[in-house]
Amino acid sequence: MATSSASHVPDAPSDIDHEDTVTTLQCHPTENILASGLISGDIVLSSFDVSESNQELKKFPHHKKASRALRFSEDGRRLYSVSKDKSLLCFDVETGKLKKRIRNAHESSIYSMVVTGTHFVATGDDDGVLKVWDMRTKEATVEMKECEDFISDMVVDDNKKIIIASSGEGTLTAFNIRRKRMELQSELFDSEMLCLAKMKQGQKLICGTGEGTLSFFNWGEWGNISDRFPCGEAEINCIMPVTEYIAVIGTDDGYIRAVHVLPNRVLGVVGQHMENFPVEAMSKTADGTCVTTCSHDQHVKFWNIEELKRQKVDTSKKGSKKGKKFLKFSKAKKDDFFSGLVDMDRQDEDHMDSDDLDEDSD
To answer: What pTM was computed for the model?
Structure first.
């Protein structure tokens, strides 16, 4: 468990510990609330605070297999969830009530999700199928298959018209969800495309890859990359913008690294999960002071990024692909990550759903 005893370390909430492996997470857009998805299928809502103990608020045991992705609605009133069990669920955050359930939303397991409107979400599955759902009717208004492998991540433009999807086959695809057609697909790259982030006032789309490289696309020009930046050998599983020029990336070796883009620099290490356990997901708190991460352990960790926002890059010096091992404000120490080891041979067992209702009406 990471500590914060050093006087120079900024405040951050303590770890949120769970009884099972955390597979995904998402921060509430306005409150100090975190949704954690577990390998059992359970979803846990927790409150967190720097000065108070974290508290479990609600637990949703409705999925039967591992939680894959979580997203809050823009107003924070709804929580959407997808799972390896192929279902799409919608919860009322305040009451904890299950509002909508779409069983077998896809023919294969759902991998990714993005909110595309007040009542709409898009989902991508293991076989490359993208669907857009009207949650009022539980009907798919769009269904397209343009990818041959899993849809790893998706972002939507400000007008909620274009979805950009990354795929495990190594392509980036632009879908026009209003005209229900594919706009453009990139050339086939050698490595999996795993995560996406908009940066530089939306002018750039940054993609993390399986070979440890950040690929850059000019927004609207999806045919080929405009730049690429190797960040190491470990695959980049998740990326979160901190400013328009600085992002944090979670990699397969358990590190959370800070990266400056254009000019490209690895600034250093913000933190580390248990050694050799990959960082699977990250989210930013509503006040923007911390990034939360999860790995193949039972802990959600918080990393204060306030100092990171003030980092400056000296463009007169040659860029670094390594950066400082640990940034001076990092609370991570290598010896802190060997407590609470979990059995990595644990199988993804089905979790029986205690609620047999198809849905509860709004």
So the answer is: 0.86
